[in-house]
Write a structure and sequence with these properties.
Elements: H1 5-10, H2 38-44, H3 49-63, H4 66-70, H5 104-131, H6 133-139, H7 147-154, H8 159-164, H9 168-189
Amino acid sequence: MTISEKDIEKRTINIFIVRKTYLLDEVEIAQHNLTGNLHIDAKQIPKDTISELVANLVSEIRSMDYNAILDMPIGEDEIHLQKGVAPAIPNSFSGLGMSIPLGNKNDERIKKIKKELELAKTFPDKLRITIGENFFFNILKIPKDKYYNFIEYCKFVGIEELFYENKHLELIRLLKEESILYLKGLKTNK
């Protein structure tokens, strides 16, 4: 409908509405158990476990030591991915036909100790990044120069185990409790 200047001069416009029925395609509405309350309905939605598993897997891979990845055994279905190694051909055969194992257990023990030392060395920084500097320096009021000292102080209550088991809420509760005692100790030592 177009409105002309004559229509505007009349100051009244008569509009007639004609009823018309439109036939729409059939729509099937899926049955759901939603109540309309977002808070309640959000709890009933199934969790996306696949993305959670993938996220956990990716975080585990990122936290692995590069040397540990290189030392992983190759499965039967992955042999084609292994680089070929030229066989060593001895120039002469000597000896009595026996061998003496040299330190396989020691190598494994040394690797385990190195891995534990590496985890212990990187733990304070991982903890600070995960939980956040704001938590330690503003909420707990730990002085920045005493952060590593505070982490060592808290290790005896098992904060490393809680961190690596992803029990972050329990870890935060424990850190809050220990920070009170730690700060009292700092004040009495001054």
